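Weekly modeling sync, notes
Attendees: S.R. (lead), two postdocs, one rotation student

Agenda item 3: backlog of single-chain predictions. S.R. asked that every request posted to the team notebook include the full sequence so nobody has to chase files. The rotation student volunteered to paste the first one in as an example of the format we agreed on. Action items at the bottom.

Example entry:
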Amino acid sequence: MNTASGVYSSIDLGVVSTLTYYLQQNRTNEFMQFLIILSDEHYKKGVFIKSYYERIKEQEFPGELTILNKKDLAKDEYKGLYIMEGNVMIKKLYIKLPKENLYVDAGTYEEKLLDSITNEFLRILATLNAHHVKLKIYNENDNNFKFNLNTSVIVKGFKVGAGGNHEQSSSNATKYDWELTFSNSTDSIDINIFVNPVHFYYLPKHTEWSDVIRNRLELGQDNATHIYEHTDSNDIRMDFISKLHMLNIECNYQKHKYEKLRFEYSIKYHPISKNNNSCSIQ
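Predicted structure, as returned to the notebook:
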């Protein structure tokens, strides 16, 4: 780790701890949001059996469950509240991506969540005026694992372009390599943007991301390594998925794919000058 002595001589270093305080204030406790769409016939109780609605409501969901009649989606009071990706299907489990406020198929939820989290971290690095980032993704459990990294990230009006990518698969693991080159920003590093939950939704939940920001702003770090080991949403148990299948609720969530997933970032920053910072909380 390199430090830039004197680069931040005009900065109150207490601001960084103030930033940490504000990031903690933005942290909220949340439950996973589940959604199932049913038709009229699923609400009807038979002579000897319970309705689909009653049977689903009896299950202990690892979060908050909403069950809607498909006709309700057309009502004014529901418009904008439940936005689903793609064509809406009945008797399918949807899970909400919290940052995008979008319900997606449970089978694609974890990968889309990973994509959202990863691209937010890249936005942080771009805001900190990164030069380039080498990203390696390892999955020891699934040699068919697929991960889609967005090829551009827009931060403060400039675009981060992705360089070449390389995919390497073996019998028991998958590895992806990317190298992304960032444009050099002549603007100030405005730390106020970090406390804006619209721009950085996940930041309050990742204390190690705060360390990356502090090391860059407080120590003038010009290169770094960051390792993120992802675990799937462990509240989604296999017995829970089996119960949904018994109720004929489509749920393609594959827990094992995310149990050994690791992201490694090698970060090189652009040189930073006295004029290329703005460290005041407003």
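Discussion: group reviewed the output briefly. The mean pLDDT is 77.
Action items: rotation student to repeat for the remaining queue; S.R. to check formatting next week.
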